[in-house]
Amino acid sequence: MRPALFLPLILLATPAAAEPALVAAAPANGASVAKVTRLSLTFSEPIAPASTVELVMTGMPGMKDHPPMPIRGFAAAVDRDGRSLTAPLPRALPAGSYDLRWRAVGADGKPNTGTIRFTAK
What pTM was estimated for this model as a whole? Predict the structure, then answer.
């Protein structure tokens, strides 16, 4: 038998490296919520402590052309379940629109990224 015939069998036997996919978020994408005091993301796969979130205020009521403003003063951490990234905020977010940018690092070291857009009332 020729070696080229074995190649498809070898490829089928190799496990695929799965990137952690976002399965739940609080606040949810597109949500309009009051008193946001915590950010929470849950992934399909375990994530590494190197996973991060960045919160940016993109709009403020009554202020036209609001420049993006990073929100600082909080830290995100991987929960005990290994699949959730949580960030308690020191106080409720002011009214406005926000982008929650996340970066989840899988067990294989490969990151997956995304953005959740929500509005705080």
Answer: 0.83
Answer whether the bond into residue 27 is a cis peptide, omega within 30°: yes
Phi, psi (5° rounding) for residue 8?
A: -60, -35
Residue 4 has pLDDT above 60, yes or no: no
Taking only Cα atoms into account, the Rg of the chain, rounded to an integer number of angstroms, comes to: 19
**Strand 22-26 relative to strand 69-71, pairing:** unpaired
SS (H, E, C) the chain: CCHHHCHHHHHHHCCCCCCCCEEEEECCCCCEECCCCEEEEEECCCCCCCCEEEEEEEEECCECCCCCEEECCCCCEECCCCCEEEEECCCCCCCEEEEEEEEEECCCCCEEEEEEEEEEC
Domains and CATH numbers, the chain: 24-120 (2.60.40.1220)
Question: Residue 7 has what pLDDT?
Answer: 45
Contact 82, 30 (CB under 8 A): no
